[in-house]
Amino acid sequence: MKRKIAPSLMCSDFLDLRKECDLFKANGIEYLHIDIMDGHYVPNFSLGIDFCRAVSSYTGIPLDIHLMMEDPDRYIGVFSEFEGCTLCVHPETSYQPLRTVQQIQKRGCRAGISLSPSCPLGSAEHLLPYVDLLCIMTVHPGYAGQTIVTGTLKKLEEAARLIEKKGYGAEVEVDGNVSWENLPKMRDAGATVFVAGTSSIFQRGADMEESIRRFREILEA
């Protein structure tokens, strides 16, 4: 399975977003990762439906929408309007997570589940045959710029091995401190989608296009 880059737009320069989106299109970025935070499930607010509409209409790059919110079922209809998008939920935020996954897919979107560091893989193993993407968070949900949580790389490796062994079709995404140091370890652990943030392509003072080339080289090594 091809390894893909999903820049986290929470880390972007909102005053220069058009330029960054042009750069993403020119460099074949596969997904744009957008964190939707409600101030309840996580103590932070970020982005929203209008931001998604603007980015989607301008770039055409598939959106990887991460719903960090309580009761995501209320908003599936709102966020499912983008062709080819992925809606990723935290299973513990839904009363019936399998039904949530099925409702996302019924609306023509790819369905994903996200496991925070405190959620063991076993708690969502029964959902893996049904999802299109499994996101392993290697930091606590809610903020950019955190350091990796010990033990999450092992969970990432276990998840990738399980999905391969069972023949499931889910992509394995890693989200959190995908730094130059951690990127090779995450690649070797079996991740196929990499959420890139402030510790790599959005690193302050670095040339973004050069950083994307460097990121690709590491993924393809």
Give an overview of the whole structure.
The chain is of the alpha/beta class and 221 residues long. It contains 7 helices and 9 strands. The chain has one domain: Aldolase class I (TIM Barrel, Alpha-Beta Barrel), CATH 3.20.20.70. The protein has a 9-stranded mixed sheet with strand order 1-9-8-7-6-5-4-2-3. α4 links the parallel β5 and β6. The two termini are 14 Å apart.
The CATH class label is Alpha Beta
Instruction: Write the CATH fold name.
Output: TIM Barrel
Low-pLDDT stretches? none
Give the total of beta strands.
Answer: 9
The secondary-structure class comes to: alpha/beta
User: What topology, given as strand order, has the largest sheet?
Assistant: 1-9-8-7-6-5-4-2-3
State the major sheet: 9 strands, mixed
Instruction: Report Rg.
Output: 16 Å
Report the principal-axis shape.
Answer: globular
What is the beta-strand fraction? Answer: 15-25%
Number of domains: 1
Helical content class: 25-40%
Measured distance between first and last alpha carbons: 14 Å
Counted by DSSP, the helix tally is: 7
CATH architecture: Alpha-Beta Barrel
- Provide mean pLDDT, rounded: 95
Let me know the CATH homologous superfamily. Answer: Aldolase class I
List SSEs in N-to-C order. Answer: EHEEHEHEHEEHEHEH
In brief:
This protein has 221 residues and is of the alpha/beta class. The chain has helices at 17-26, 49-59, 76-79, 97-106, 152-166, 183-189, 208-220; strands spanning 4-7, 32-38, 45-46, 63-68, 86-89, 110-115, 133-137, 171-175, 193-196. The two termini are 14 Å apart.
